Structure formats: C-alpha cells, structure tokens
Amino acid sequence: MIIGLTIGHDASVSISDSEGNILFAAGEERFSRIKGHMGAPYKSLEAGINYLNLDRKNLSKIPHIVAGALNLQDVEWFYYLLLSKDYQAKFDIFNGFLPPGLLQEINNKMKMINGSTEYKFKTLLEQNLGYEIEELVSVNHHDAHAASAFWASNFKESLVVTLDGSGDGESGTLRELKSSGEQRILKRIPDKYSLGHLYSEVTKRYGFKESRHEGKITGLAAFSTTDPNTIKFDSLFKSNFYCGFSPKYRLDFRFRNPKNLKSFDSRLAMRRAVERSEKKCLEFPDLASSIQNYLEKSVLDLIGQLKTSKHLKISLAGGVFSNVLLNGSIREKFPNDEFYVFPNMGDGGLSSGAIWEYLRLNGKPIASNAEHTMYLGTDIDVTPKNWARIEKTPKMLAQEILDGKIIGIMFGRMEFGPRALCHRTIVASPTNSSINHSLNLRLSRTEFMPFAPVVRDVDFDKVFCDSNQKSIINRTNYNFMTETCFVRNEYRNKIQAVVHKDGTARPQILRRNDNEFLYETMSILSRDHDLPAIINTSFNAHEEPIIENIHQAKQALDIKRIDKLYVNNYEVF
Q1: CA-based diameter of the chain, in Å?
Q2: How far from the centroid of its chain's Cα atoms is residue 205's Cα?
Q3: For the chain, first and last CA: distance in Å?
Q4: Are β-strands 313-317 and 339-341 bridged in parallel, bridged antiparallel, or unpaired?
Q5: Domains of the chain
Q6: Sheet holding 564-567, edge to edge
Q7: Mean pLDDT of 147-161
Q8: 93: how many CB neighbours lie within 10 A of its CB?
C-alpha cells in the first residue's frame, strides 16, 4: 500500500497498491463540507482506511507521499496552519487575511518543535494522524501533476504539459515521458510567468474568488460581442508570452527594484495589465473574452512549438486545464492527435500523481490504467429503515424527466474530482432553456454557462461534433467532462438548456458500466423521444461540495432543492 496526500487547497488522499493501482481516492471537502478544503486530508484518509478495511497497526509502515516541498523554512507557519486540526480550513488564504496576532502565535508554536523544517512537518503530521510514519517522502508539485496526467492516460510516450497558478515556485513544466519511466525535462516555468495567476487577476476584477470561480469567467467570455484581439494582454510581456521560454515583462520603476529583480511583484504587474486592458472594454464580458482568448493563444502556441512529432500524444494537468474551453480549443487545433486531461486536474489530483511519481523515481513498475476510472470514493451507505423507498424502473425515471422533474441521483462509489459523473448527479430535461434560471435559483447558483449534458456512448456522434460539424475521433476526455465541443445544428434547439451561446457544450459520455440504470433510462429517451442527451449537473448547492452520502442527499430533497431522489434503482422519500 502507498498513501498519497495533497496538503493545501483542495486537500485529498489517494491510496494505491504497490504498483500504483488507485484503490481509493477522495477530496477532503466531501467530508469536511468546506469547499476547496485548505489543510490536510484527515477525514478522507479515515474514510479510505475504513473503506479498504486496512489494518491500522500497519499504517505507520505504509509509505506516505506528499506533493510539494517540505523544507521551506520561511513558510513553517503555513505548514502549521495546514496540518493542525485546530486550524483546518478556517482561513481563505487566497482571498482573505489571517487575524492579527495569529501569525505570531503560530510561529511561537513552531519554535517549540526542535529540528529541521522537514522534521517539524513530519512531527505535526504524525501528531494529527495519531500514528508515526516510517517513510514520509515529498515529490515536486509539478512533477506530481505531470505524473497524474501521463500515467492515467495509458500512453506509451507523451508530451506532458502542466500549468497552474503556482507550486514549489513554478507555474508549469514541459517534458517528454515514456512508460519505461524515462523523462526529459524541456522547461520549468517560474511562477512569475503564471498564466493561472493572470487569469485569477481577471477573476478577482469581476468580484469573484481566486482559485474558486475562474469557471465563471470561462462562461462569461462567450457573451462578448467585441473582437477579443482588440483588447490585448500581450502588452504585459515582451516578445509574447511563450510560457517562460524567454519572456520579459514590460517593466517600469513601479513594479521592481532594479537592484534586486527578485523583489519584482509579478502579481502587481498582472493587476496593472488587467486594469489597462479593462479601459479598452466596451461591454461587461469583454475582459473575460480577452483573457480567455489570450490563454488559448498562449497555450496553443506553446504546444505547437513543442509538438515536434505528429505521433506524439499530449498529456495535460494543472489547474489551468480545468478551463474546458481551452481544452476544446486544443482539440480544434490538433484534431487528429490524442490528448488527455487528467480528470482531477487541479491540486486535488496531486495525491494520485505523487504516488505515481514516487514509484517512477524509485524505478518501480507502474500499473497500466487502461480502464482508468474516477469512481474511487466511498460507496453508498445503508438507507435507514425508517425511510420510505420504492423500487423504480428506467422507464419510470425517463417519464419523470420528460415531466420536468428535477431528480437527484446517487449510484455506486463517489467520483474523485470536480465533476459529477452520474454517481452524485442532478438530472433533468434540457428541452427548455428556462430551466437554467429556475434550477440555478434552487441551487443558489450564479452561472454564465448552461448546464452540462450527459449522453450515451452510442449517441455521442449523433449530437456532438467539432466546429465544422464533423465527427470527433478521440473521445476519452468526454468520459470525464473535461473539454467542450460543438452541438450539431439539428440538436441545438432540441437540447437548448445545455448549449452555450457559442454553440458549445461540455458533455459527459456515459457508458453502460458507469451507471446501467441511467443508461437504460437514456436509451428509452433517445429511442422513443429523440432526446439523446439530458442535463447532468453536480449534486450540490452554490459554494457547497458535491454530496458524499445519502443523508446529505435526503436533506436536499427535504428542502426542495430536488423533486425526486433516486438511490441506485430506488426512489427514496
């Protein structure tokens, strides 16, 4: 057994066998009920231990792998904040401040532990876990991202690109990886050139939260009627961006001390660039459109420069690739190439990547992930005996969808990652776009994107296509809802509630073994009513994590977030 840990925002745990087969993986937020949980994954680890029925006497002998450096002396206070259960997820580091006096209090507590920074980290972790750890290993943040992208892809060799806000002083890496474990690093990108941070500055300018609401900017971009090329961010850099190859900021004395370039405040420079670009905007969505255009151009140029072989596949991870429009533009740019986005592409996925990178560094074989799944969390708990329930058929569920009911679905093991993949999902009919307003009101959401659709594997080609209305060849990413594509003209009005203003959608392909009951329901809708796609939105309200157990689902039913609740093939009352 190996335990992988993401400690920080989107804390998570992954537990694998000795060959890297992930047996359990879950985000801490599902158990703490704090969105984007900042801290350590103590509750999710406990859930994994219980689910796998691990012998607790042997926990100390299992290697524990952490994504990220453990030797940064200047942030020892941050380690305490992350690792202590007293402070778990109490502070939004990205969008707020620590209360006065807390930093000094934490520093004083850290001084009470004698030893190196690594020793202090290990001591704090052990104190909060309740057992000693024989082997605690840290791996580089972006190396873990790269491992998550490559080893889950099942590619034999690949160009691997990681991009995010920042991790271990970097905002991205570029490399070639082979299934033999051989790796060639092409570039490590310093965090001062962070595309993720630049996008977050636009997010904050709209009044949304960094590392939380970037998806709203992605959705808003399509509403601009101004040519995004007229509002450029290129003025921030000399010789374009090129993600750290040879960019130089267009600096002036306000942004740096010429005697000490390390003091340069890149976030301030980005903020000023956002302000300059905003002055050219004519409409509310223009700034969103401009940054989306800049992001896509920068990443496509980057991949185009590096992809020297037509046969070299592409693997992607890091928070930047949570941008589904960007991923869709990669599809459009390289239509005949296989590319893979790790479904838990943000820091939540580091716990799995850390395990795979640990195995690679130690020269150990890593299991093939040809049947890679994201149904890796807890299973459905037992329905209380005092709850009324009645067995239902796929035909009954199909009729309730046609009748306009909002239906919560729980099926099997919980998904690992940010997307609901029909195991903790709300489904509804997409035939009337007015549901986007009414359902968002129920869920207390404010969204610029429509809901996402789910479609059976056999119906995907009938409904979805590329920008030229041609069939899409490589479809793996659509199993996990990580990229957009276009809706065929003849279906845009039929499923209008899941079609964005630009004619795109973010579909999930449902396979029979994903959820057989829902699959049969959709077979009936497709065959008898020419409705091959329905709404699939995550089973949660605004600023809440996706539900984990049936009690949370029942609460949503009781407060009328949903009209019906299905647990496997039973309706629960």
Answers
A1: 74
A2: 22
A3: 40
A4: parallel
A5: 2-139 (3.30.420), 153-345 (3.30.420.40), 389-572 (3.90.870.20)
A6: 389-391, 570-572, 564-567, 407-410, 424-428, 533-538, 452-456, 508-510
A7: 95
A8: 15
Residue type, 443: L
- Tokens describing residue 154: 């099942």
Name the least confident of 107-111, 256-260, 300-304, 533-537. 256-260
Mean pLDDT of 58-62: 96
Q: Which residue has the tokens 């659509």?
A: 478
DSSP 321: G
The token pair that represents 279 in the structure block: 């002055």
Of the pLDDT bands very low, low, confident and very high (cuts 50, 70, 90), residue 309 is low
Alpha-carbon separation of residue 16 from 1, 6, 41, 179, 344 (angstroms): 6, 14, 16, 18, 16
Q: Which is nearest to 8 in space by CA: 38, 28, 44?
A: 38
Other beta carbons within 10 angstroms of residue 301's beta carbon come to 15
Cα–Cα distances in angstroms (integers) from residue 57 to residues 53, 62, 264, 354, 410, in the given order? 12, 10, 50, 24, 33
Q: Is 399 helix (H, G, I), strand (E, B) or coil?
A: helix
pLDDT beyond 90 at 342: yes
Residue 243 has phi, psi (to 5 degrees) of 45, 45
β-strands 313-317, 248-249 pairing? unpaired
Which DSSP letter does residue 470 get? Answer: P
CB-CB contact of 294 with 277 (8 Å): no
- Residues 189-208 as b or e (16 or more Cβ within 10 Å = b): bebbbbbbbbbbbbbbbeeb
Q: What is the pLDDT of residues 126-145, one digit of tens each?
A: 999 999 999 999 999 999 99
Kindly tell me if the per-residue pLDDT of 248 is higher than 80: no
DSSP label of 511: P
d(CA 565, CA 567): 7
Checking if the pLDDT of 234 tops 80, the result is no
Single-letter code of the amino acid located at 55: D
**Any idea which residue has 């990178």 for tokens?**
357
Beta bridge partners of 138: 66
CA angle 413, 417, 422 (to 5 degrees): 50
Computed on alpha carbons and rounded to an integer, the radius of gyration of the chain in Å comes to 23
The encoded tokens of residue 414 equal 């919980």
